Amino acid sequence: MMASDKINENGASKFLQASNMFILLVLILATLVSFNCSASLEGGKGVRLEVLNKLKSSGIIGQHAVQVELGSRNSKLSLVLDTAIDLTWIQCQPCKGCSEQLPIFNYSSSETYSDLPCSSGYCSALAAVKGEESGPECRNSTSPCEYQLGYSYAPGRLGKDQLSFAAGGGGAEAAVLLNDFVFWCGNASGYLSGGGVEAGAMGLGKGGNLSILYQQAAASNESRGLEKCFSYCLTTVNGAGGHLTFGCQQEAAAVMNYTNFYKTPDEPHAMWYTTKVSAISVNGRKLNYTITERERTSNTTRNVTRPLFAFDTTVETATPISLLPPTIYKALNDSFTHLMQGYPRAPPATSDPLLFDNCYNLKTLSAADVRRITPSISFTFGDNTVVDLDPSAVMYPVNPDNSQVCLAFTPNRRDEDIPVIGALQQQTLGVFFDIPRGRMGFKHHDCT
């Protein structure tokens, strides 16, 4: 659920989602939820951003956005929540391929905007985000920090400006979060679709000081309950609420079921929230799955099939649906198909055989009946953190009349590609990220 390039030697989630899910992105009308600030601080509980509950048309299923105000003119922008990147990026004028229906941030008209020079520590940190050894395109130390970045961030410059969260109802004033917010000012659309309503992406990764989490913690000296923690609750398309909350001192933190972050030996980006999945269960029965790997000896190389007891996965908000290793997806798909064998099949929702390929015609059933007959799926993280998915996170109604309701998972291209728990599977869950303690928590939540 959707780093600057996000591709490593094994392949990575954002690039895979962009290439595999193109048809899906233009097929489905989905929710883009705008979060608005109705209160700043409540007794040290952190900054909670309440949902204004606007539903907007988007070509992307399962993406959620926070509405912010940027610059001296308080330009209102919707930024996709992205837990897999550190640096927030925003479409800036001039912007190639950007949506004309949106206000594109004009940094030259903001009295509080300034470029960051090549001598800035943030500019140096950007090289690590880019994942390359090459530095910025600098003529001298006072030149603006500019890159011809590819894929996610698009060409542009590093700048800073005043960031606040848009005011909620009742005439409340916007709550300023950062006076010197560092972000990427991009001159192209990046990985966002040109016809959407989003103006950029808010980087909620844990990799370093470019992340909004580290910036707001440093600005407040961690004295306002804004340590490097945050939580969110992502609603369904018809959901009535949702929230994003900054701060470690949250009431929700005490009731979460926690699992630890897990750092793999070859993890390419420390910004990702990676944990270990030890089991997947369908209707209470754990799946049995194996994985085939190449094993080399001194004389030969052969394929070896062995049981797979656990696998690493990232938890993302900008990747629409979960990506599983092909062997694990097959076990899940086979079990799901067996349990649904009494219901009429529907054709795949896309021409891509990897996307929404297991579909059913349930138009004779009410929405409540669809929820009732949906097989349950649960994930076990770490040793014993069990998370039951909401039925809406298991089957997705491609057609509103339920004539095409599909299993809401998709396989990676290869077993070694990085699995992802996407936004759709996190619906109705409260998810808490506790960076100081190296853990994340899950809890079913009504998102109000």
Automatic annotation (TrEMBL):
Molecular-function GO term, any one: aspartic-type endopeptidase activity
UniProt superkingdom: Eukaryota
GO annotation, biological process: proteolysis
Stored InterPro entries: Aspartic_peptidase_A1, PEPTIDASE_A1, Peptidase_aspartic_dom_sf, TAXi_C, TAXi_N
Membrane-spanning residues: none
Pfam families found in the cross-reference section: TAXi_C (PF14541), TAXi_N (PF14543)
Residue stretches making up the Peptidase A1 domain: 64-443
Coiled coil (UniProt feature): none
Family as reported in the entry's similarity comment: Belongs to the peptidase A1 family.
Identification of the protein by name: Peptidase A1 domain-containing protein
